[in-house]
Amino acid sequence: MDRADWSQKPHLGWLTLLVSGGTLICCALPILLVSLGLGAVAASLFYNVPGLLFMAENKAWTLGLSALMLAGLAWMIWRPGQSCPSDAELAAFCARAKTWNRRIFFTSAVIWGIGFFFSYLILPLRLWLET
């Protein structure tokens, strides 16, 4: 499988969605639960879900890895010189794969943005608004 075939397969997109979803679970979900008064539920999640505490303690690495994967997916989708095959059936498959890759990319980017906002921006924004 050569390099051009990767842009026509949505596997990288689904992996990026999974990793960016991890940022939402590790960083935004606990803050949301505590904000709703469900701190005991958040503590129980951290205690019972093995990787959640590790991801939350290393949120810079988690967000950085998912940002690199998002950048790689963006490059795979929008790189120059990329075209679909001339065969009608393969061209239709290529167009569908590109459409799904774009949808997955934007969904992943929104999820990553929410995780980043709740990890790094919500507290400084709250402190700035209180002054």
Give an overview of the whole structure:
The chain is mostly helical and 131 residues long. Helix content is 84%, strand content 0%. The longest helix is centred in the C-terminal third of the chain and has 43 residues. The radius of gyration is 18 Å and the shape is elongated. It starts with a helix and ends with a helix.
Give the secondary structure arrangement, pairings included.
Blueprint: H1 3-6, H2 11-35, H3 39-48, H4 50-57, H5 59-78, H6 88-130
Helix pairs in contact: 2-3, 2-4, 2-5, 2-6, 3-4, 4-5, 5-6
Quick overview of this protein structure:
The chain has 131 residues and is an all-alpha fold. The chain is built from 6 helices and no strands. The longest helix has 43 residues, at 88-130.
Q: In terms of structural class, how would the helical and strand content be classed?
A: mainly alpha
Cα-to-Cα separation, first versus last residue: 57 Å
The radius of gyration is: 18 Å
> Please, how many helices?
6
SSE series? HHHHHH
| Overall 3D shape | elongated
